[in-house]
Amino acid sequence: MDPFHQRDMTDNSQYGYSPPSYSHSHSETSFRRSFPPTPRPSYSSPSLLHSLPSLNPVRNITPPEDIVSLNEKQHALAEGPKSPYNQVREYVDRFEDWHSGANIKRGSLEVYESNFSIKISLKEWLQLFKDLDYSEKDARFPRYSYNSSTSTLIIQCMPSPMHESITSTIAEGFYAVRSTLPPSLRTRIYISGNQECCGFGGRYAGSNKTPDFAVEFENAKGDVETKFVLEVGFSETYKELVQDAKMWLEGRGDVCVFVLANVEETPKYRCPVRYFDDEDFEQLGLPGFTELRTSDFNLEGEYGPATCKGLVWVGQISAVSIEIWKRDAVTGLATRDGSPIELLGTTAAPPIKFQLTDFLDIGPESDCTINLNWDDYKALLRGRIKALAVFRCQMAMKERLGKENLRGQDYIPSDSSE
């Protein structure tokens, strides 16, 4: 058995990559957020398209109507005359058809990398939750988060290596401390990722949320309480992350520390081959779908952009900021503790430390410090940027070629295949 009781850490290999293995905060310095100008090449789409020597310089690449309007069509669901219930059902059906390969359209990845947000009543959400059979499905995505305080449903369709790099770094800090504890304490600590939680109260009654990372502790009475929660924003907006902090700290009395990690990609992703016709795409000379590797991509700066064949597949990761939120002892409201911590600044990020006594009712003789190593995170981040580039490039191939063509001419069906 995993000594840390790791539960529900999602296997994302089905999406083209696998995740890395895996406070009352005691801040030691005053935090200063800096956003250094990171040199990067100019890579606007028109200049890239015309700089490719392999493409016919005479041919004009005209955006096909079905590609141009796809993003608008997908997100126009929330503005149509249909009920919120029907809008969500249609959106989820489209995603599942696309992901299964039943209905592949170019440009869909851009849509499904972004969260889908819609206002929906608690009554409609509960009916939708039942009709989708969400609680009975093994799949971790799409992931549904409902905030009853704002009557807002957010659907996250796609995981990302950007999430995994932060969650694994924080998990390792807890693992390191956990391994030094006596069995009487080790067995009282649980770690989970992508595990759905409910039990919210007050104005958040009826809400549900699946955190990117959480740590649970068994108290002296034997009750397991969620004490530490991490949410990573890459597809989420900062505003949505702040709403998460409020829901966890104000709607759950057991949560005492919420960590918000906001990852910014500049510019936002747009598929660089979305307007290529088949001849232009073929002339790129990209490796085959199964042969594509992270070594095929270059980082133009320390943290991107990630390019291949002169095209940008991941923009520059321009900022990664960490915020620690707690519950105010007087008002009971969620409050940010200290200033944001910028991990990619020109100066070293200040250490983030937690004490075991922040979460467990133990004496000072059993207390120890949980350190988070951001130097390791920075090294890991560079590899994760390339992993995201591979994934996006493979999805562009999948959307263009279709499910059957990806099998290749040497594909031989198994006995169970139809």
Low-confidence stretches: 1-74, 406-418
How far from one another are the termini? 38 Å
Query: How many whole angstroms does the radius of gyration measure?
Result: 23 Å
Secondary-structure element order, N to C: EHHHHHEHEEHHEEEHEHEEEEEEEEH
Could you tell me the number of beta strands? 16
Number of helices: 11
Secondary structural class? alpha+beta
Mass-distribution shape: globular
| Biggest beta sheet summary | 8 strands, mixed
Mean pLDDT: 78
Task: List the keywords.
418 residues, globular, disordered N terminus, 29% helix, 11 helices, three-stranded antiparallel sheet, eight-stranded mixed sheet, single chain, alpha+beta
How would you describe what is shown here?
The protein starts with 5 loop residues before the first strand and ends in a 17-residue tail after the last helix. A hairpin with a 2-residue loop joins strand 10 (306-308) and strand 11 (311-314). The strands form 4 sheets. Strands 1, 5, 6, 7, 8, 12, 13 and 14 form an 8-stranded mixed beta sheet that branches. With 418 residues, the protein is of the alpha+beta class. The protein is 29% helix and 19% strand. The chain is built from 11 helices and 16 strands.
